[in-house]
Amino acid sequence: MSFGNISPGKLNHAATDLFIENLNLIGGEAMYFPKEVEIIEVGPRDGLQNEKVFVPTNMKQMLVDLLANTGVQRIETASFVHPQAVPQMADAREMSTYSNQRGIKYLALTPNSKALELAIEQKVPQIAVFVGASETFNQHNIRRSIEESLTECTQMFERAKEQGMFIRAYVSMCFSCPYEGDIPYANVERVVRHFVEYGADEISIGDTNGQAHPKIVYERFAKLKEQFSDTTFVAHFHDTNGLALANIIAALQAGVTKFDSSIAGLGGCPYSLGATGNVATEKVVELFHRMGIHTGIDEKALYRASAFTKRLLLQLQLRMR
After folding, report:
1. Pairing label, strands 29-30, 25-26
2. Is the separation of the CB atoms in 253 and 23 below 8 Å?
3. Contacts of 240 (CB under 8 A, 6+ apart)
4. pTM score, two decimals?
5. Which residues pair with 184 in a beta bridge?
6. Are 104 and 68 in contact (CB under 8 A)?
7. What pLDDT was estimated at residue 318?
């Protein structure tokens, strides 16, 4: 499949319509448009973790409320990472308790066995682990080799399954890495295979530094879907080069129907210099709706959540001055 000279970048309404008009046939091939997709909102965790000024817990809870009211089915609300490593996530217990009280289906990041035990104490329904496809990135991110990380994940999966928890497994740096450059498919396949063998319920494939392009996205997801046909894959894109929406279309054509996104484009990665925010949820939802693909998300409610997030970010910036 070829994407020709189409470069949607950060689409406005007119550009979105023009882009969609050209999607029905690309390179003479009929394209795949599912009836519905799932959008997983990662803003309260993956989005906010990079903010240097601590966001008050009650403001995070207000954001989660606004997001829950949009119709989004799953929200990543917390991380049980050590507070010294990511101070922004120091209120993981409070956020989990609040999410439980609100009856929200949510995920919490558990980077190690100790974090998993904390999540179990808080009755977290869905956990997420992560391992990089880049050895250097993994060392910078969690100070362990890939092999060491996978070994601990094996133990964590067993423990989580005893508790009936849903397990998401993130694979970071699946296309390129700021330390190692282009990442071979074999690196990604190694981590994915381990996660599949030990029972991950879904695997999120991350363009962590936002350097992927539609061709490699399509080829990589198509190969993963062929090799692990019974596995649920999620696409996770950052918008560093303005290609996230184009990459979503590429992943869609490879058969992916679940996508991570972050309200107002919140995000970044503390261990990937230059990486900007995750693709904005409101832009992703708008794109799918204009293509007639159901998300279950109310766009008006979503833009209210986006406006709140932007005001919150402005307040944080003013506090830094």
Report:
1. antiparallel
2. no
3. 209, 210, 211, 274, 275, 276
4. 0.90
5. none
6. yes
7. 83
Residue listed under structure tokens 């996508």: 259
What pLDDT shows up at residue 23? Answer: 57
Q: Which residues are catalytic?
A: 269
Write out the two tokens for 283.
């832009």
What is the mean pLDDT, run by run of 10 residues, along the chain of 321 residues?
Answer: 39 54 56 96 94 94 98 98 93 98 97 97 98 94 92 98 98 96 97 98 96 97 98 96 96 98 82 67 98 98 96 84 69
* Two tokens, residue 308: 């709140």
pLDDT value of residue 106: 98
Any idea how long the chain is?
321
Task: Name every residue whose Cβ is closer than 8 Å to that of residue 212 and which is 6 or more positions away in sequence.
Answer: 174, 175, 176, 237, 243, 247
pLDDT value of residue 274: 45
Label residues 199-223 b or e (16+ Cβ within 10 Å = b). ebbbbbbbbbbbbbbbebbbebbbe
Of 168, 60, 172, the closest CA to residue 124 belongs to: 168
Which of left, alpha, beta for 140 (phi over 0: left; psi -120 to 50: alpha)?
A: alpha
Helix segments in 78-145, DSSP class H: 92-102, 113-121, 135-142
In degrees rounded to 5, what are phi and psi of residue 259? -140, 135
Task: Return the DSSP state at 10.
Answer: S
What's the CA gap between 169 and 179, in Å, rounded?
Answer: 22
Question: Residue 12, exposed/middle/buried by CB under 10 A (0-12, 13-18, 19+)?
Answer: exposed
